[in-house]
Every structure is written in structure tokens, then in C-alpha cells.
Amino acid sequence: MSIKDMLRQYLPSGCFAFKRLLQVRKKIYLNLFSRSLACKIPFLEKFSYAKKSDTLFILGSATSVFDLTANQWELIKQHDSVGFNLWLVHDFVPDFYMFEVADRDAAPVFVTRSKDFFYNLCMKEHQYKDIKIIYKMNTVLTRSLLLDANLPQSILKNFYFSPVIFLAYHNLETFRKALNVSMRALDKSESWIHIHTHASMFDLILFAVKNKFKKIVLTGADLTADYFYETDHFQDYLRTKNLRPPESIVTPGEKESGINGIESWFNVPLSVVIDEVDKTILAPRGIKLYVASKKSRLYPRFPCYFELE
Questions:
Q1: How confident is the model at residue 12, as a pLDDT?
Q2: Is it the case that residue 3 has pLDDT exceeding 70?
Q3: Which domains, ranges and CATH numbers included, belong to the chain?
Q4: Is the pTM of this model over 0.85?
Q5: For 135, what's the count of Cα atoms within 13 Å in the CB-facing half-sphere?
Q6: What distance in Å separates the CA atoms of residue 14 and residue 195, rounded to the nearest whole number?
């Protein structure tokens, strides 16, 4: 067994949460002070959000979002919503946003997707100029494509930097330990510590907990390899809007199996991670988790929100 595996097995990463956070911040601050643009962007502890309701819709990118009716979108608008990553190309503008981008030295497909994301954000400046945007930082700033993005000030004024703490584990037992310890750290913190594993959906579920939402609705969370922005008709639609369709990163194997690659990350499927989060964190706090579509692989473990309305 490697040293890395031993640490994952016997020392839940939550024990290192604050130490890791300080290390990450130190690296980022060293970069920030040399960048006039970045010096103007606050960290996540400055982030505040005035809720409209006790329900948060987390907007994912599965094709089931096409099934939502006009009345259902209107209902979503009456509550709180957060989009993340490539949700940007959808017409529905959420109440706030979270994204991550590739490093400058990443594989070409990821670099292209990141550059296209910033292009589309600039094209949607009018819709997003008043939306709070969290930049999920997985690396130091000097490697980030954000520095090349040339975003307008109307967008940058609502940016927040969020250093990420990764949960380290190698099976369900060590995940459970890391989750418990890290959640205690999050509860004690006055602001949202950005704890990440598997997918942005996980991060935003913890965000909902920190902000005391009582209902969380996973929308477009089918856990499949099919994304609404990769369908031919939607890509044609984006071109009519002068937007760039995101380049696909789905592998042939994922297309054949129909399962998103994040479903088996760290040897613990995302569906199992969400189930454990529900049992360990949500249910004891009286927080209800739903899906927006019965097409989701999380259904019927979690009820369909719109069936109950």
C-alpha cells in the first residue's frame, strides 16, 4: 500500500481542512498581489446571498432539462437557483453561478472549452452582469485561463475566488469519515469552505446546507453521458445566438455505456456519494433532496419534485 493510500485509509481529509485551506490561500495570495485584475476579486468569505425561498434548484446539464415545461421553469424562477460550469449556454439565468476552468497547460480540448466558456460569458454580459459568480479554483492563479479571458468589469465586479479543499478517500468508509469531519469544520466556519469531491453538484449541495435551504432539487442530474448542449438541435440554436457550442469530452466508452465518467471516481459512484450525503448530513438536519426528472438514476431513491407539487 502506498503512503497516499495509507493516508486516505486512516486519516480522513477533514482533519487537514483548515491547514490545506491556509496553504492554498497562501499560494493564491502570492499570485494575486502581482495581478492588478485579481487583486480586486474577493475571496468566498465575502460572499453573501439573500435567499428568496427555502428551496434551491441546482441546475445540471443532462438532457432531461428539455422536458421541463414553461410552468415548471416559472416555478423554478420563484425559488432560488444556481447554475454551474456549462449551464451558461442555457437561456435560463440562475440566481447565482459557480464555474471552474482548465489550466493553460491542460489538454487542448479542456483549454478550448474554457476559452469558449469565457467567450460565451462575455456574449451574455447583459444577462449575467448582476449575477454573483463563484470561481472554483483548483489551482494557483498564474496557471489559470482566467488571466487571458479579458472579461468586462460588469462581470468581474460580481466574481468571488473560492480555493478548493479536496476530500481524500479511497472507499465508502473513508469517504464517510472525511465527510463527517469536514462538515464539522464547515459548520464552525462563518463562511462556506469550498469542499469538493466527484462533481460540482456535491459542492453545491454543501452550499445549500451552509445557507440553510430546506429543499434541494437536482435538476438535469441524470448521471448519464448525455448533455443538453451536445444535442445537434441545441448546438444549431447556439450558433444562431452567436454562442460557441461546448466541445464534447465524452469518451466513446461513456457514450456506449451511457454512464458519466464521474460516476466511478475514487472507486465510489457519485450516486453512492449523494446517498451518503443525504443519510449523514441532509436527513439529520431535516433537509429534503429531490430530483427534477424521473429519468435521473437517482430516482426513485429521491422523489421527483414536480410530482409532489
A1: 47
A2: no
A3: 3-308 (3.90.1480)
A4: yes
A5: 26
A6: 9
Q: Quick one: which of 248, 198, 255, 188 has its CA closest to 221? A: 198
Largest CA distance in the chain: 54
Q: How far, in Å, CA of 57 to CA of 83, rounded?
A: 9
Radius of gyration of the chain (CA): 19
Q: How far is CA 160 from CA 46, 54, 300, in A?
A: 8, 23, 36
Residue 9 corresponds to which cell in the numbers above?
Answer: 485509509
pLDDT digits (tens, 9 = 90+) for 165-188: 888 777 888 888 888 888 888 888
Residue type, 299: Y
pLDDT digits (tens, 9 = 90+) for 54-79: 999 999 999 999 999 999 999 999 99
Give the DSSP letter string of 115-132. HHHHHHHHHTHHHHTTSE
Integer CA distances (angstroms), 80 to 49, 155, 302, in order: 10, 20, 20
